[in-house]
Amino acid sequence: GIQVEQSPPDLILQEGANSTLRCNFSDSVNNLQWFHQNPWGQLINLFYIPSGTKQNGRLSATTVATERYSLLYISSSQTTDSGVYFCAATSGTYKYIFGTGTRLKVLA
Amino acid sequence: DADVTQTPRNRITKTGKRIMLECSQTKGHDRMYWYRQDPGLGLRLIYYSFDVKDINKGEISDGYSVSRQAQAKFSLSLESAIPNQTALYFCATSEGRRAFFGQGTRLTVV
Predict the structure, then answer these.
(1) Do A43 and B48 touch (CB under 8 A)?
(2) Contact present, B50 and B56 (Cβ < 8 Å)
């Protein structure tokens, strides 16, 4: 089955800094999503992005399906951006396979 | 109200006890999933169902069973709980593109 890898595993930023999170996948995907898990454990949908580029406020994401990776950009980070960011993908079947996440801490 | 509702939200149970985690959805999706999250790991798939008559094992189904009582309801059971099953459990639904998650059930087996 498809393998999903995320990097970096941990990231510490000062408030106001920008960051890029990466998600690599081992096979072609038919679905790809980015999630934010907040400190209370809730999974928040950020982007559905099997290909192309999307933006939502300070966040944007790009998936280059032919090269099997996706990037999540966070600009002007805020303390409320802290938490764990996951990407999840399906390939062929509709089983969502998750990466192990990037743990982000934004310092005030 | 949440589109995907899990009950209970928190549960402490003893080793050897049977426990059921419930999930209901109002999104009208056919596809439903149960995942488990352990500290430092991503979410791992336990079971999934693409319709009421279709139940499939995920990557870590040992020690678990499921029941799809209706399109909107998908329950996960631990027949004889063990401490190793202490984790955060998530239910999810999908229309075939995006997945939508419940708020999670934090289960502790002592």
Answers:
(1) no
(2) yes
In chain A, residues with a C-beta closer than 8 Å to the C-beta of B45 are 95-97
CB contact under 8 A, B103 and A41: yes
Backbone phi and psi for residue A61, each to the nearest 5 degrees, phi listed first: -140, 145
The structure tokens listed for A6 are 């995320």
B109 to A43, A71, B5, B87, B102: CA distances (angstroms): 23, 37, 22, 9, 21
Which tens digit of pLDDT belongs to each residue from B2-44? 699 999 999 999 999 999 999 999 999 999 999 999 987 889 9
Dihedral pair phi/psi, residue B36, rounded to 5°:
-125, 140
How do B105-109 and A102-107 pair as beta strands? unpaired
> DSSP letters along A22-34, please?
EEEESS--SEEEE
In a mutational test of the B interface, the residue from A3, A31, A96, A97 whose CB has the highest number of chain B CBs within 10 Å is A96
* ∠ Cα A7 A90 B29 (to 5°): 125
Is some CB atom of chain A closer than 8 A to the CB atom of B45? yes
Q: Which pLDDT tens digit goes with each residue over A13-65?
A: 999 999 999 999 999 999 999 999 998 899 999 999 999 999 999 999 999 99
Burial class for B81, CB neighbours closer than 10 Å (0-12, 13-18, 19+) = buried
